[in-house]
Amino acid sequence: MSDIQMLIDMGFPKEKAERALEVTNNKGVEQAMEWLLAHADEPLPPASMAAAASAAGDSSSSTAAGGATTEPSTEEGAAAAEEPVAKSLKCDECGKLFKSQEEVEFHAAKTEHSSFSESTEEKKPLTEEEKKAQLALLEEKMRRKRQEREENEKKEAMERERLRIKSGKDMLEARRKMEEQEMKKLMDQRKREKLESQQARDRVRAQIEADRAARKAKESGETTAVSPTSTAPVSSPPAAAANPTSTTTTTTPSKPAEAKSYTTAKIAIRMMDGTQLVQTFQAGEQLAAVRLFVQLKMDSVDAAFGLMTNFPKKVFTAEEYEMPLDKLGLVPNAVLIVTKAP
């Protein structure tokens, strides 16, 4: 808000506010306000000079036009002397006195009063106490406006900060959901490819079994045609059963060799920047799933990197990424280190 607008809001006429700022060299509202209170009863110099010039012009024109003027009669002079002279303007609704038309217009715009009349009462100049009281009132108004402005600015700053924090949280949440969806999509694709590969292997295996069965059937038919008594070697199983000690000896060591079955693998991953990630995978998942998880957690998705173990030290190859975690010995838990691509 400009200084002149602030002075107008305090109740000073626009012309006097402009004059006060001009006299005080635009040094601020307080000095202009002090000048206005000190010269509240003085008319504006431009207005008085304009009135004198117009009066001089009227007298010269009347002299040139009429040549000589006639003196009024004694009775007319006495009547004119008895007529009351308007010394101020008065608001009929609140009774306030004004010195100029500008003050009347300002009062009407501020209070919406519309009834004004001329008054013979003269607006008394403010006393020192009244000037101090009015100055204190104006300073209080300025202080309240300044306080309101500071409170509004503080509220706006808090609202902007709240919106910024909310926007940051929304962006993080959206990014997290996007990463989860992308990882889920890639995992589904990996599972689908794995299923298709397994089905293809099953079809090949079934075809091999069918070919083997057909070949056995063909060989069996040829053997029967050549030697009908070819079933004699069937008596060999009792010979094996006749020696139970040897059978027990061969089967007994296989029991301690049975490994415990794990369904999950807890993998601790050490990133290149020193941070560590821990994630649980299915034991049957491929090592490529771990690589995909690391790739999603890195800043650059296209960055090239590799995976290795420290004990024993081993760098995984491209073929091993297609192998399941349990076949690579990474269950039930393991530590992988992210390295730069060779």
From TrEMBL:
Residues 47-83, 223-254 have a biased composition (Low complexity). Residues 107-221 have a biased composition (Basic and acidic residues). GO terms for cellular component: cytoplasm; nucleus. The keyword Cytoplasm applies. It holds the Pfam family UBA_7. GO terms for biological process: negative regulation of proteasomal ubiquitin-dependent protein catabolic process; negative regulation of protein K48-linked deubiquitination; negative regulation of protein ubiquitination. Residues 47-86, 107-259 are annotated as: Disordered. InterPro entries: UBA, UBA-like_sf, UBA_UBXN1, Ubiquitin-like_domsf, UBX_dom, Znf-C2H2_OTU1-like_C, Znf_C2H2_type. Its main location: cytoplasm. It is found in: Cytoplasm. SMART domains: UBA, UBX. The keyword Endoplasmic reticulum does not apply. Keywords: Coiled coil, Cytoplasm. One of its GO terms (molecular function) is K48-linked polyubiquitin modification-dependent protein binding. This is UBX domain-containing protein 1. The lineage of its organism: Eukaryota, Metazoa, Ecdysozoa, Arthropoda, Hexapoda.
